[in-house]
Structures are given as structure tokens and as C-alpha cells.
Write a structure and sequence with these properties.
Helix content: over 70%
Radius of gyration: 15 Å
Strand content: under 5%
Number of strands: 0
Distance between the termini: 31 Å
Number of domains: 1
Structural class: mainly alpha
Oligomer: single chain
Length: 114
Amino acid sequence: MLTRTLIPSALAVAVGCFAVSVDLHNDEVQAVVLVLLVGGFILGAIWPGGAWRWALILGLSILIGDNGAPRLGLARGPAQPFNWGTLIALIPAFIGTYVGVGVRKMISESVASV
């Protein structure tokens, strides 16, 4: 139970927090997308059973961090209106996670056929 849900969830939250930190310190989105893709890929490849969970945690962390950090005084500038546009972060999170699942499946099938 611990290795199937708690550890990957904690890692997804950690990667999400890192992605939020990258987002708050950059004006461009490419770095955040790269963090979400790579983090999702690793989580999906190692724990494919809950891939949708890891992708949701990663993508929603941007929504929560981008909208919550200014209100908590963790970001520069005044708090902006709630930004639903950050939900677009779910796209690279799901892509990275499910590419990781696919790569794991291809590797396990190629090893099984040998």
C-alpha cells in the first residue's frame, strides 16, 4: 500500500512544488512544461498503475500554486484574480505521465519477448 500510493503521491507533490517554484521565478512557460513532462514521465514509468493521479497532482499544483502563492505572500506583486488558465498545465502533466506508462509497457513487452 505504501509504495503504491503514498510514496508516488508524495513525489508528485514534491515535483509539483518544484514546478510551482519554477513557475513563480520565470516569465516563460517552457521551464515549467519541461518539469511537468519529465516529472510525469518518471512517475508514470515507475508507478504506471496510478498515472492519472500523478498527472492530476502535477497539473493542479500549478493551479493551486499560481493562485495561492500571491495570497500567501510567497510571490512578488499583488494577488491577481483567480486564474483558471493555469489548468492548461494538465496537458503536459498527462502527456508526460502517459508517455512514461507507454515506454514502460514497451520495455516490459520487449523484455518478455526475448
